[in-house]
Amino acid sequence: MERELFEHYLTDESRRGPVVDGAFTGAAGGAACGDLSRVSFLVECGRVREVTFDAEGCGATKAATAAVAELVDGEPVLGAALIDVDTVDAAIGGLTPAKRHAAQLATDALHRALQGVASSDLNLDPAGRGVGDPPEEPPRNLRRRGVSHSPNRRVAVAMSGGVDSAVAALLAREEGAEVVGITVKLWSDPETDGAKACCSPEAVLGARGLAHQLGIPHFTLDLEEDFRRRVVDRFIGGYAEGSTPNPCILCNGEVRLAAMVDLAERLGAERLLTGHYARIVEDDEGPLLATAADTAKDQSYMLAALPTELLGRLDFPLTELTKPEVREIAARHGLAVARKAESQDLCFLAGQGKRGFLRRHGGLRERDGAIVDSAGRTLGRHRGHHDFTVGQRRGIGVSAPEALYVLATDAAANTVTVGTRAELETRSVRVRDAVLHREGSSVDSVKLRYRSRALPATVSAAGKGLHPNLDVELGEAFPGVAPGQTAVLMAGERIVGHGTIAD
Questions:
Q1: Do residues 318 and 437 both lie within one domain?
Q2: pTM of the prediction?
Q3: Is the pLDDT of residue 49 over 50?
Q4: Catalytic annotation on 33?
């Protein structure tokens, strides 16, 4: 540790003081270690102003927090967002491993304040520029660390901490763009395994570390309240009513991507890039989503509810790549996430079962009910209709000469109706709250589940726009049309509409 630098910051009281009115504030630390770091500042014209700090505990925490306050004062917000533990550690002359936590606390306090900035409605581009405007001077932290700066093109990347978004950022950087990372925090629950969830506090820390490893400024958007109201509450309500909602489609279509696009624009970025496997194509009427080159990883179904007006501000740089190619790119650049396993759970269910989640958050407890056949005969018992989904085969708990499937659930009667595959199959589907981006006559297929193939289909005559109900006729029988799931209407490889499968 260089004592001179350390002593300078340890005794620096120039910015120590109370929180200024209207300031963004972040704090980290507390009872476990006895150290506390707090950083506060205003943002004016995209720059950090009137920084104050406070710190309690060991001298290293006080010095690290004072250093952060000095580093960000007068900087563009983008420069502040690039500061990481190594930046703070170097600023105070290097900490011993036992004291490095002090730099972590000060860095966390800064980024929690920046989280408030990201969630505001402020213009965060210090030059207030638009695409094609004259370049501005790169932030001091970018210059200090030798990060390439391309002032004519700035893009934001939605970073989850996984390999796909990391490679999306890498590819943009290699093309010469100035890249900014954005991560959304959607869910915080002690029962959730944060290491397996894409939008947990742990995931945010991982994504921030990855962004800084790539030399990319990082911002966190806290959307937990909106996510709970618009996604989780509807998920719980759907199961309570006997349907099977698709929360990922709701989240992508209504919550996180629109919020990240808004932040990207306020940062002066021309587009938001994501690591999704999908394409954006143009026809005579504008942009539409389309399936990805790697059909095994195609995620266009999960993006189907995106408003078409957002598509012009999005880009999917992995669209022509396969997953093995993406992992190889990450490994070539030495990223630890190159071999990171993919989460298979919903982000708010990671590490816990659906039954326990619905009980804890929705009050849906075990309730004895009958398993019946299509004639109403009782075949067995169950512990709650919300444990079952139409089309389900495993876990029914009833023996029969041939395989049984869930045909329907009745929330009011708390019954589960089961039957044969032949009884399950249907050739018509009613869709509610449907959106058509093109004329109904263009629909030639429909996808009824994420992992299922698109089926030949036509829809009842309808024009573009919103439709309370829409009838979809299938060209072949499909087993397991589940109420609450999303029907994605397609014209070839293009998505031209979507709606929720009705009871």
A1: no
A2: 0.89
A3: yes
A4: no
